[in-house]
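Re: your question from the hallway

Yes, I did run it. Sequences:
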Amino acid sequence: MNKYDYIILGGGIAGSLLAWQLHLRKKSFLLIDNEDPHASSRVAGGMINPITGKRLVLTWMAEKLYDFNHRFYPRLEKSLGVPFYRELPLRRVFKNAAQANDWLVRCRQADYRPFILNDGDETSLFGIKTPFGYGTVLGAAVDTVPLLNALHAVLGNSYRKTNITYDEIKPAKEHIRIGELACQKLIFCEGWKATANPWFSYLPFNPCKGDVLKIRAEISQHTGIAAGVFLLPFGDHFRCGSTYIWDELDCTATEQGLRTMTRQLENILSVPHALLEHKAAVRPTVKDRRPFLGRHPREKRFYIFNGLGTKGLSLAPWFSRHMADYLLGHGGLMPEVDIKRFPLPSI
Ligand SMILES: Cc1cc2nc3c(=O)[nH]c(=O)nc-3n(C[C@H](O)[C@H](O)[C@H](O)COP(=O)(O)OP(=O)(O)OC[C@H]3O[C@@H](n4cnc5c(N)ncnc54)[C@H](O)[C@@H]3O)c2cc1C
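Structure:
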């Protein structure tokens, strides 16, 4: 039997960065993933954007996360020897005059200023319709597939590609058994698939499907565009996302999804585009929009790190470290993310 202190089930951005934290701390662990190409982390657009929404609001923990990610991703790139991270000005295209006005207000607010770039480049954006103008946010783009593949490769024997069914998991007295594997602590990181997890499905998941396109268009490769849909440059193409669909939880790229994305793209592009690829996946979104971290209230050796929602790439680095500290007994969890906020329903 192969014994570990920790087994992490699910190698998307959550499970993989948690595994990285345990690897850095030289712990005994195994990361398991079935490498589903439709996993949220493998389909994600890859945008990190600290100012979002119609009202141009600063995202939760923006300052802390921005500083952390700014250091974390370049260091990880160096350790893995693969490029996947790019800091990028994001041109936030305003929908109407009221939004342009909101932006002027934001530019004067001290907490927003670190995320706003006044590069003096207020000229029109070639190929993008900007009838009400735009502002520039300091953002970033993460190419998740090379990140995950390189990280899994560096983990060597601490990573295994396989699928686990929940009935294989047997919490025995000495250890938790999963077939010929055994561990002391099991951390579930299965993304939206955790809605079928017999121990954690009581948590208020609210999964949301989305479409992402890969396109080619003659627009600048030096900036990203956030205009309802986003466009992020990756070498010779752009990634464009996304739709938000709550009543169709599968990873099928549909005609309807493509039509919606195309319509939105045509609303912002004044140049033609060529479609290269269309994918869809389901985000592990949750009702109160805060991640799920913590320990099962009854099955004390079972843990969860999930619920990264629409912002996994901003949240995963900091919260994987937070989760690792908690697992190793180096501190408690932030109450906002601790699953203790949801009582286990009585049977
Ligand atoms: C269309 C779309 C666009 C997005 N765009 C962005 C964006 O621009 N920026 C951003 O920050 N976030 C974005 N997101 C959200 C982001 O993708 C998620 O927050 C994040 O990837 C969630 O990561 P995760 O590891 O929790 O889940 P997942 O990525 O779902 O990872 C879970 C992994 O566990 C595996 N797994 C599950 N069950 C088992 C099992 N039984 N056995 C073995 N393996 C198993 C799955 O196959 C998967 O590999 C987007 C999501 C979608 C769908």
